[in-house]
Amino acid sequence: MSDVMERPVTATANATPLVRLRDLSVRFVSRDATMHAVNGVDLDLAAGEVLCILGESGSGKSVTLRALMKLLPKSACVTGGIEVAGRDVQAMNERQLQDFRGSDVAMIFQEPMTALDPVFTIGQQIAETVVRHECVSRAAGMARALELLELVQIPSAKRRLAAYPHELSGGLRQRAMIAVALACKPKLLLADEPTTALDATVQIQVLLLLRKLQEQLGMGVIFVTHDLGVAGEIADRVAVMYAGRVVEEGPVGAMMRGPLHPYPRGLLGATVHGGMRGQRLTTIPGAPPSLEALPTACSFAPRCAEAEPACLAGVPEPRSPVPGRSARCIKVAAG
Amino acid sequence: MSASPSTHTALDRGGPAQPLLLLSGLKKHFPIRGGLFGATVATVRAVDGVSFAVRKGETLGIVGESGCGKSTTARLLMRLMEPDAGSMVFDGEGVGQNAQTGGITLKEYRRQVQMVFQDSYASLNPRLPIEETIAFAPKVHGISASEARGRAHEILAAVGLAPASFARRYPHELSGGQRQRVNIARALALRPRLILLDEPVSALDKSVEAQVLNLLVDLKEKFGLTYVFISHDLNVVQYISDRVLVMYLGQVVEQGPVEAIYDRPAHPYTRALLASRPSMDPGMRRTEPPLTGDPPNPINPPSGCRFRTRCPFAEGVCAEREPVHSALGGGHEAACHMAEPGSGHSQTGRLAA
């Protein structure tokens, strides 16, 4: 089991990556302030790989995800290279984006009730995607919709085709949204906290379903979450973000056993799990920095127990002590 | 703060053996109106016969999924809504009765029982500086403005916010973790004996969640408090609770000491709930979910045992009769036919051991 989980990163490294992010930066400029939401993110995703972006609110994880589909508002200033399936996303015009979204890349959101259209049935919403991208008839689209609802394990799928989103329970709505996203067999699935709003017994069902579908369809998945447990269930590789930068990246098993960077180390220590009763929780003091000024040093230094003057000298470059793992911390040995 | 243990003993009327709060047969149904004349077309059985006790000085955790009635129970406990049936006894005195019948008035009850809500922003008045928010309730209860402000400063210091720099701030000038500390401070301002925490850390980031949990543990010790802690996060409940109550569709399915619930869960729902926790170890991944389907709608709950539609052990008897709470020793009890000797379920007795 565990060798499946820790698929070596090198096995797919020579092929063209499905996603190639180079020095991605996103700023939101308004009259009063400039928010430096993402500050130089490099990420690669191989085809068929599951990458979890882990981070707290305001770390830039969702903004990074939206940049991959060019879903950010016009006011966002996006720089850097974004390549998905060999195509430059930044250079696409509106028409090319319409073809690209849905067929090459699809996204599922945290809140299915607001992501689905309340005035169309589930079947119509899936069929619409299929008809738009594959130029088939409405009837063929509906037939595909039925297959998809069966694929995402919605019971009595035929009846549910004619259901409106409000008629479904939370878990079924989330499954329906996954069906919409998978309608045109995307190569890349982007998931923005898709299980956060679900109950515990339903969350695990949806996570296991997503993992099964990912293996079945061979999709690459980028999964944004703040929950270490969710990352442990689904990820091959994890990228931990803090203040708009990836501070650590590596295979999930190694990361969970021994994080290199003090921030994920603190996060693991602060996460409550079984058998901690009566002990005092280790905490990370303070709060994440405001991103109104571009960080010029290690952003985590003010909260870090191991910080020293050298940490404030500049933004630490990623160091890689072992192949496939890296961390932005000057205390990590360069490999 | 001057709330020494002696003031608590003075408040203590029933003695240590008397539960601080005793609920029995609590019910709250919400009618759904529809049709031309607004007739009641259905009823949501949000809380349907809930009985439990909160002992003095303990932390009672309440877990369950959405729609199980956790939050309605909290609102009933706080008397933010009137129960349709059932009784509440606070330290030996009936709640909501008047002085003639020997009970405790709602005003006095609410002085002793306070609540912290999940949404730290929505539960604070955006137009009041936080010291005014904290001093508000003491003023209502007859404390002079200057004394109330002094008390607010003491409590702000106790929750880890320096009064000199925080007292005059407004809620929007604080981070989520700081706002939740203000909410806790406000709950403490009346020197209550019982604090009801409804998902107090669910909206916080993990690193801040641990800070607030540590604070709650410290405050409980310092002020001799009793907590009712409602959460959907099983790990947090295990960390903080002495006893745990598991709810499903408006009813209590299992309760007991935290070790018993987490190490020897008796009810199939509790077992599934515990097994649904994502593991942090990628080497321990599962392939089959412990339960299928969503929790049913509380409008038309299943007959007999409400969990039977999702239960892998369901048999004929489960549809016919509602299971009773069977004692499993040490204050651990479960409402399942498998835990009840002679219930007619083929697996009876397997759990009793």
Give a description of the structure.
The complex is a heterodimer of chains A (335) and B (353). Chain A has 335 residues and is an alpha/beta fold. Chain A has two domains: 192 residues, 3-Layer(aba) Sandwich (Rossmann fold); 72 residues, no CATH class. Chain A is built from twelve helices and eleven strands. Chain A has a seven-stranded mixed sheet with strand order 6-7-8-3-9-10-11, sandwiched between helices. A four-stranded antiparallel sheet of chain A has the order 2-1-4-5, covered by helices on one side. In chain A, a hairpin with a 2-residue loop joins strand 4 and strand 5. The longest helix of chain A is centred in the middle third of the chain and has 18 residues. Chain A is globular, with a radius of gyration of 21 Å. Helix content of chain B is 31%, strand content 22%. In chain B, strand 9 and strand 10 form a beta hairpin. Chain B has 353 residues and is α/β, with parallel strands linked by helices. The N terminus of chain B is likely disordered. Chain B has two domains: 243 residues, Rossmann fold; 72 residues, no CATH class. Chain B is built from twelve helices and twelve strands. In chain B, helix 4 crosses helix 5, helix 4 runs parallel beside helix 7 and helix 5 packs across helix 7. The interface between A and B is large, with 50 and 46 residues.
